[in-house]
Amino acid sequence: MKLTVKVWRQGTPADDGRFETRTVNDLEPSLSVLEMLDKMNDDIVKEGGDPVTFESDCREGICGACGILVNRRPHGPTPLTPACHQRLSSFNDGETVTIEPFRSGAYPVVKDLMVERSALVDVMDAGGHVQVAAGTAPDADTDRITYDTAELALDFAACIGCGACVAACPNGSANLYLGAKLAHLSMLPIPASERGMRADVMLAEADERFGPCSLHGECALVCPANIPLVAISYVNKERMRCALRGKND
Q1: Which of 152, 246, 248, 249 is most buried, by the most CB atoms less than 10 A from its CB?
Q2: Are residues 162 and 131 in the same domain?
Q3: Rounded-to-integer distance, Cα 65 and Cα 80, Å
Q4: What CATH number is attached to the domain comprising 83?
Q5: How many whole angstroms separate alpha carbon 230 and alpha carbon 237?
Q6: How many whole angstroms from its chain centre is CA 234?
Q7: pTM of the model
Q8: Do 138 and 225 share a domain, yes or no?
């Protein structure tokens, strides 16, 4: 299998950047997009060139580090799938594939396909944690929750923080990410004791770093963790609750 790859090259954040076109041969359809980049970099290194910089870690769809745009779509053509699991079988032999970094004002390019996504981390650092003395494990277990509540909280907690939702949104909104974090922590009895404070600081940080929700729903279509679109409603729900009841409630 052969693919023509138009890949974004940008040496430093101050550079304008450009697309570089390369032909990558001897590819198997079962390979992932990242493995195709590995093969392309092997070819570049053999030619004495500078390999394309991109991020990856687990390559198991867990860490969220592998985010790129493939033919202008976050992660790639297969819905709800991270880039590390996007297979070349989605493309035709000889097809031209465009690879570029996530595009968002909140994600400045560091080099080539690598972007700075610390804005997401800043939102979590602001309040996406629990600072409650829960006691020993038996003490914590005395707060009972239903099976359905636990499962729903876990569904929202599945967010891997890849940031594809922001790249997909024309307004650069992080509301799917933010809503998932606020939702799963508000449903559990111990984290919920800091619910007002968490909403106050996380919403303030997100409002400063990201745009407003576009109401288009593109974010949920590209989320590899399949976070439901209803997560966005928790942003306004927690905002209103904090305004009415205060950040200490």
Answers
A1: 152
A2: yes
A3: 15
A4: 3.10.20.30
A5: 11
A6: 18
A7: 0.92
A8: yes
